[in-house]
Amino acid sequence: MASCSSMVLVAVILLLSTNTRGVFSSYREKEVLSLKKLQWSQRSSKTSFLSQKSRTENGATILEMRHRDCFSGIISDWNQRLQNWLQADRIRVKSIHAQIKILASGKTEAHSQTRIPIASGVNLHTLNYIVPVTVGGRNMTVIVDTGSDLTWVQCQPCKLCYNQPEPIFDPSLSSSYHSIPCKSSACQSLQFATGNSGLCGGDAGTCKYEVSYGDGSYTRGVLGSDRLILGTIPVENFVFGCGRNNRGLFGAASGLMGLGRSDLSLISQTSDVFGGVFSYCLPTTDVGSSGSLILGGDASVCKNSTPFSYTRMVPNPQPVTFYFLNLTGITVGGVATQAPSFGKAGILIDSGTVITRLPPSIYEAVKTEFLKQFSGYPTAPSFSILDTCFNLSSYDEVDVPTVKMQFEGDAELTVDVTGIVYIAKSDASQVCLALASLTFEDEIGIIGNYQQKNTRVIYDTKESKLGFAKESCSFY
């Protein structure tokens, strides 16, 4: 009888404890998620763009990387802002798939190591990451994008430029600036870098460019070259776009840094300096958090807490911009999910896309296993592209099953617990699985930046390999 009473008492204690923390642990691997820590905070102050730092260490250039959220003040309606970000993310994914189809068909439309601080870009009004650079003696803050090739900044004279807190670059004030001629190899490289060939018009000494991002965003201007400084490392005659007509979801950044694979990308142009190697550790959206973009050197300069595991970059002649990998599996809470697309369809990794997109069969397998393990919590309506949501407002913290992605060669990306769920409402009444399904099985999957947080991702373009390691992201 006493034994029975004890069992009842234990059951009551467990039931009561779920007010602050879930006790649904039918899975082997889990992590504790503090809901208060993860909630989007209401910003009350701004951080100066130019306060981002850089340094050189063991032959590497290290730039401080921040999320753009660190640079805006109070945002009154975070729910609507998050909706807008995910809608923009949906459009970006469509744009990437459209670009893949165009370039894969062969058709085009005519129209040393340095550590750079990397920051989240929420406060520049997009979920992207930003770093500081210097062009022609002017300090600037630019978006980091592995899914783009052409680096560009807003330039005077401006026909149409969006507002930015930093002075707009005026090439006439830079003694090292030069225009790129129309028949130059750089101008001809635009076709592969942007999908649009360079335009000459009536001026053979000028190469006009146009980049459209598929969501109505675009940049138009002329190609130029100038002295680029990354940290303390100078890069002479760096070719970039001088944007005089720019519109879209670039927030308040001065421009964009293209880290893709074509000849015009920053990685290709600086291969003699940095050896075609770069890595980043993307910070969270917390106020004051920072990560880093490292150019050059080797893995020894990184502050990873686990060893790197590498996978090969899948050869893909068209399009050359993106970094493709072979996804072979995903485990949820230590349980391997089963889907016919594993090992058959390529997936690209992208710093500009926010939420990871998976082929329908893989997404359904992951979602089903997640729901099986994360059971017992009240559900909530879907949020934008996220269809698996919960009401966790009664909990201070919950146990979340781990999510790990496996790649060819036994490489593994362990998704940080803050990248597994997405808090849509600040009171945690709408917390969603931070993954989304593609529409069709043959569409290319995309690993977004939300799932790359607190992970050191290293790209070795010379050896055509990419590695993952856990790291608590910080510039210092």
TrEMBL record:
Signal sequence, start to end: 1-22
Swiss-Prot/TrEMBL GO biological process terms: proteolysis
Domain Peptidase A1: 129-469
Source organism superkingdom: Eukaryota
PROSITE patterns hit by this protein: ASP_PROTEASE, PEPTIDASE_A1
Active site: 145, 350
GO molecular function, one term: aspartic-type endopeptidase activity
Cited Pfam families: TAXi_C (PF14541), TAXi_N (PF14543)
Keyword line: Signal
UniProt similarity note: Belongs to the peptidase A1 family.
Designated name of the protein: Aspartyl protease family protein At5g10770-like
